[in-house]
């Protein structure tokens, strides 16, 4: 339902895959094991001492960034009631899921959104990735497509790709009322000035229930 200001009435704001970008006023979620490390006093210091935690991650622990996160497995049903969420934001997360998991997640997002609620998704732009392909030197394309140079390719590798058109079809097929490509830091989703990132490589997309 829409309020007098032309925006959905208040509800939970849900940030999927927040990691180091937790935002005040949102439920910031992730599956990173750093969430559990942050709950054990001295664990981060110990892991750093034995070389299992780099300086950047240790500094994030010192600043309490991981304590701002809530664990949420996106391959499972969302633990929120129907029509309880006003906005969902996700940046560079969907590509790490398999196609069947993505579709189920979108259906779940629609379920928990209030009528008029918005889901904003940011993903790598598959068309830009494909433009990198050179049959004589495919390394840049392969790295961008699969995140093959990550330290943990199983966890952080890409399992799917998207264009603006494919996102529109997917969200419409899952029952969203409107689904459109958006511009960087422009749209219905709140707090885009701090949420949107990586404009040179991304598709920005919004769907409304």
What do you see in this structure?
The protein has nine helices and seven strands, in the order E-E-H-H-H-E-E-H-E-H-H-H-H-E-H-E. It is an alpha/beta fold and 209 residues long. The protein has two domains: 113 residues, Rossmann fold; 40 residues, no CATH class. Strands 3-2-1-4-5-7-6 form a seven-stranded mixed beta sheet. The N and C termini lie close together (10 Å).
Summary, kept brief:
The protein is α/β, with parallel strands linked by helices. It has helices at residues 34-37, 43-49, 55-62, 99-112, 126-130, 139-146, 153-156, 164-173, 192-195, and strands at residues 12-16, 27-30, 69-71, 85-91, 113-124, 178-182, 202-208. It has two domains: 12-22 and 72-123 and 159-208, Vaccinia Virus protein VP39 (Rossmann fold), CATH 3.40.50; 32-71, no CATH class.
């Amino acid at each position: 339902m829409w309020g007098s200001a032309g925006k959905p009435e208040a509800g939970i704001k849900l940030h999927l895959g927040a990691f180091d970008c937790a935002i005040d006023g949102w439920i910031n979620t992730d599956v990173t094991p750093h969430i559990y490390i942050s709950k054990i006093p001295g664990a981060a210091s110990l892991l750093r001492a034995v070389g299992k935690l780099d300086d950047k991650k240790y500094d994030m622990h010192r600043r309490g960034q991981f304590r701002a996160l809530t664990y949420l497995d996106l391959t499972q049903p969302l633990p929120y009631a129907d029509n309880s969420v006003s906005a969902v934001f996700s940046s560079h997360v969907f590509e790490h899921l398999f196609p069947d998991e993505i579709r189920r997640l979108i259906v779940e997002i629609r379920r928990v959104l209030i009528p008029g609620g918005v889901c904003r998704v940011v993903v790598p732009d598959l068309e830009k990735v494909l433009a990198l392909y050179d049959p004589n030197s495919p390394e840049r394309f392969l790295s961008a497509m699969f995140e093959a140079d990550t330290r943990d390719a199983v966890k952080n590798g890409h399992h799917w790709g998207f264009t603006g058109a494919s996102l529109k079809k997917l969200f419409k097929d899952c029952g969203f009322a409107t689904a459109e490509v958006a511009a960087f830091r422009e749209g219905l989703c709140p707090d885009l000035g701090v949420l949107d990132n990586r404009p040179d490589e991304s598709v920005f997309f919004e769907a409304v229930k």
